[in-house]
Amino acid sequence: MVLLNLVKLQLLTVVDHKKRLAYVGFFCVVFIGFHFYRFISFLTIENLSGTGLEALFYTLGGIQGPVKAFHILSSLVLITSPILFVQIAREHYEDLEMLVLNRSEDRKKWWTSLVLSNLILSFVFTVFLVTIVVIFSLLFFEQFQLSYYGTEFYSGWADLNLSPLSSLFILWLNLCIGVTLLLNLLSLLQLISHRKTDVFVAYLIFISSTIFIGGFESIPDFFLIGLYPTVLNMTPSINEIIGSILIKLVLVSIIWLLGRIFSIKIIAS
Q1: Partner of 158 for a Cys bridge, out of 35, 151, 251, 261, CB 3.0 to 4.6 A?
Q2: Does 59 have pLDDT greater than 80?
Q3: In the chain, how many domains are there?
């Protein structure tokens, strides 16, 4: 019961910012709409017929093919937007942190509640993103599967012979776990250091760098933390997909365990 109340309290720090939630929602709609515009413009210029599934990969899949500055910037905006919002929404987090710690019988429960609230926020955010893409797809495309163009450009994914629903689920699941991991990693770093703003800025620079490097260099995905929420940088195979998701879950568990250790050392200033 204590843990449940702590989770509710953590979520309230974000949900109470209704105006900011509305701004983020509007930004997501504009962001995805812009991608659809670019995708449809490309299809028109090349005289190709696209589908909703291809638009989903184009919008939320990450970086693949000839890398351009737009692809890197797009991935950066997509991945950092939920992190930035949660950080802003918790701008008075220090006061709440002390309140929660004083009420909590166990500081480990406080950390667990923070991890769980990040998971819930990531779930809601990624479901919202995917829902917007699906709605746009139904509005602008008649089909939700790979076309001939799609089987050529996303050949590895086409070879898997996955159903459109399976592809949608894999993309969402990887996005959700990836965002959860990034949020909890930031939370852990800010737990260790009381200079939360400095840590946040350094963290954004770090994950931005991994996205940039991943766009031009062949580096194992494990080191490209900024691309954890995306799927197109992965080798499209069932074993690769399952392995990537399991690794992210293991990393989330490690972050949770480390947080339980460091949370004991929190001292109210």
Answers
A1: 151
A2: yes
A3: 1
